[in-house]
Structure formats: structure tokens, C-alpha cells
Amino acid sequence: MDSQVFREAATATIEEIITYFDTLAARDVVSSVQPGYLRTLLPTEVPQDGEPWSAIHADMDTKILPGITHWTHPNFHAFFPCATSYPSLLGELYSGALSGACFNWVCSPAVTELETIVLDWLAKALGLPDCFLSTGPTRGGGVIHGSASEGVLTAMVAARERFLRGKVPGWEGEYAGEDAEVEEVVMRARAGMVALGTGMTHSSARKAARVLGVRFRAIPVRAEDGYALTREGLAAALAECRAQGLQPFFLVATLGTTDVCSVDDFAGISAALEADPDGERVWVHVDAAYAGAALVCPEVQASTRIALAARFHSFTVNMHKWLLTNFDASCFFVRDREWLVRALGVSQAVYGNAASDGGLVTDYREWQIPLGRRFRSLKIWFVLRTYGIKGLQEYVRRGMRMGVRVAEALRARSDLFEIVAGPIFALTVFRAAGERGGAALTLEERNALTREVYEKVNATGKIWLTSTELDGRFAIRLMTAVRTTQEDHVDRAMKTIVEVAERVMKG
Ligand code: PLP
């Protein structure tokens, strides 16, 4: 493809993308293709001769788009959003053009330096404590990871290193060529290490523990506590671990759990750790993958008491969920960057250079699991500048207002629905009401009715909802944080849900 063909193709593609967004509401949200549909449409081999763009482009409409579920559709109410915006797309375009595997500062100084700057901007915009700033008192800072799953794994690796260094005096963290006795002590200590989360913690924490070969314990949380981890719950789990000879070294505290958007009790967590004999050595990672975005609003900073995170060790928020930035843009903050470098700063001669060796610069390869990295800060910079704090606040507040609108519509039909959680952070979780025709329903009957409403609403193709299960109760999640969603989309969605529920419940 030469530059002239690229110019024409790219210009037409941009026009097409604009039309796609402008007409998105008219499409069905969810793709209706059957598994394996694409194999029947595409050849089995790479073509021998290169094809013209016109032929490739034609396949987008006929073969790819039918298999796309539209995450930016105004009636995408499933999971959490996966953001996009025009400034972010422009950032992606430049990033693709300025291609590089910018693992060290020297690979492209602007890539590293812009990342440090925009993550400091973001930390301040979210009201995070100073310890997470690169210029803060604890030598903290931020790095862009590909996902929150990568963030929790990174935090857990660093936490394990920090914990073991304290346990094995003089141990410098390298295993190769280590004194066999020391290695034995380290490996034995590893066997008793346990990472803690709750029954609501995202599965990525369990996966990280599995990757690292450490135990994971999920602390039960209760509906009466809003599904949040409490001081008592954590204290009991710590005591139980210690009684079993296990060593808790890591805790995930969540701000906005995936199922119900509950927020763990930061003050209670701090108090439980302070009261524990070895609590100071438990690394607390705050998973704010989705709801952390709402911290752009001062009222959310106050209600979540985010200032208390000054006691914790790391924090993740995905700008690619609720902050208008394309996937991937998972922002990870640490209170002492040295912990990451110690755990992940594995040297290799080929990566040495004067700036790195002189200790003058940040080399982000030492803050993450992969080596290579994309220029992701550019799209974040474009988004933050285009929207400004006020624009981001307005967008996040609109999503939350629409959550309240959903809850009002559900409450207005208490003969059909019961709210199980929310509205909080633009998420409302609900199920079928407890009675039908004046008779009380069993748990199984309510679950079956809720599932029937859920499946029939999704079968319309016009709305996409997801479900969850809470203490054996099947429930429907409805999220209203997609950029394109407006009040009338929510009202139409609620009308459909009510109509379906009337047919199911009354029929
Ligand atoms: N944490 C929470 C609370 C989530 O809701 C999710 C995904 O939705 C994740 C972590 C995992 O995010 P990622 O896809 O970035 O790994």
C-alpha cells in the first residue's frame, strides 16, 4: 500500500467510522451470528498474491461487522463499558504510526516522560493520595498496563518480594547462585503465603495467585454489609490464616466490585491491619478498575474516603472502562516504585544504556511484566486535554444520574421488580419481585422468572444486559455508563424491560 492509496483508504475509513458512531443506535446491540460463522466465509490460507484495499475493505461490512457486538451502542448495558472517543482514537492513530517497543526511556524519551506526567495528572484528578505521585513523598508513581489483571499480578509479585525480603534477612531477591540454605528458607516461606480477597473480588486476583503459585482465600461478604469487606471480616480472616500457620501477604480491596459495585471499607481494613501483629507487611492493592473513574468527582472522593488509600500500596483504574479512552489504558499506581523495580527489574546486557545505567531515568520495563510497550499515554493525554476535568465529571455524573433513573423506573414497578444493589456508579442490580398474583414465590421460582425476563429482553437484540448470582439469587445487572447513552435510551430500555416482565410475571 503506497502513501496515496493509504491517504484515500484512511480518509474514507475515518468517514466510515464517523457514520458508524452517528448511526450506531439503529443497529442491534448484540451480534446474532452462530459460532464458527467466520470460518465458512474466509479462505483457509493466506492469499498468494496481495489483494487490493477495495477487496479487503468490502469484507469489513459483509464479514466482520455482522460478528461485532457494539460496546459503544447506547443500549449496551452489560458488564462495564469499554470506552472510546474521538481524541482517544486520534491518539491510537499516532501511536500506531510512531510504532516502537518503548521499554526503556532511551527507546523514545517522550513515551516514558509523557506517561509519567499524564499519570501524575490523573492521580491528582482522581484525588489519590500524594504517595501515588511520581513527585510524592514516598517515591511512588504510575505506569500504564494493558489490563487490571496485569496490575493485580504485578502488585502481587512486588508484594511477595517485599514480604520475603523482610522474612529472610540479607536476601537480595535473586535465586540463581543463591546460597542453597537461603533458597530453601525462601521457598519454604513461599509455601505458606496467602493472598486475600473477598467473595466479590474480581477473578483476576485469583488468577494472579494461581500464576504465582500462592494460595488465595476469599473472605465472605454479606448483603447486610452491602457486600463490602469490613474490619471484622478481615480481622477474622487474618486470625484464621495465622491459626493455620499461613502468612497473609496481600489483600485486594475493591472500589466498585464487578457484580454489584460495592466498595470495601478502607478505614476498617486499615484498622484490622493495624491491630494485626504482622499487618504492616500485608500489601493492600486497591482494585478500582471501573469505579475509580468516578473519583474525578469530588463528591465521590469524599463518599469513598479515597484519602484513606494513603495507607495502601497500589491502585488500579482502567481509563478504558469509564474514562473515554480506548482499550488498553489500565493505570497502575504504586506508593514506592522501588518495590516494582526490585521485583521486576531483571537485567540483560542488550538493554543497558548510559541513561539507564546512570540511574537518571525511568525504564518502565521494570514496572511491568512484558518487556515491550505501546505509546499509550498519548491517547490519555489527548482525552484529558480535550474533555478537561469538567468534561469528565459531566460524563461520569450523567452515567450515575441515569443509574438513578433506572432505579426510579424499577421502584415505580415494585409489583414486578426488587432492587438488589445500587444504583451506584451507574449500576443497578435487580430481580423479579417476590410475589405473583398475591402469592409469595420461592427462591427457585423467583430465580426462574428473573432468568426468563433476562433472556427474553436480551433476545430482542435491542438491549444487552448481563446477570450475576448473589447468595443463590439470580439477578440482572444494568449499567448506564456508555458514552452514547442518553436519557431516552434508558427510558426505552426500561419500557422494554417492563413490557417483557409484565408478560413473564403476569402471564
Ligand atoms: N477488576 C474489576 C473490578 C473488574 O470489573 C474487572 C473487569 O471488568 C477487572 C478487574 C479486570 O479488568 P481487565 O479486563 O482490565 O483485566
Automatic annotation (TrEMBL):
GO cellular component: cytoplasm
Record has Lyase as a keyword: yes
GO biological process, one term: carboxylic acid metabolic process
Gene Ontology molecular function, alphabetical: carboxy-lyase activity; pyridoxal phosphate binding
Pfam families: Pyridoxal_deC
Keywords in alphabetical order: Decarboxylase, Lyase, Pyridoxal phosphate
InterPro entries (UniProt xref): Aromatic_deC (IPR010977), PyrdxlP-dep_de-COase (IPR002129), PyrdxlP-dep_Trfase (IPR015424), PyrdxlP-dep_Trfase_major (IPR015421), PyrdxlP-dep_Trfase_small (IPR015422), Pyridoxal-P_BS (IPR021115)
PTM sites of type N6-(pyridoxal phosphate)lysine: K321
Cofactors demanded by this protein: pyridoxal 5'-phosphate
Similarity section: Belongs to the group II decarboxylase family.
PANTHER family cross-referenced by the UniProt entry: GROUP II PYRIDOXAL-5-PHOSPHATE DECARBOXYLASE, MIP05841P
UniProt protein name: Aromatic-L-amino-acid decarboxylase
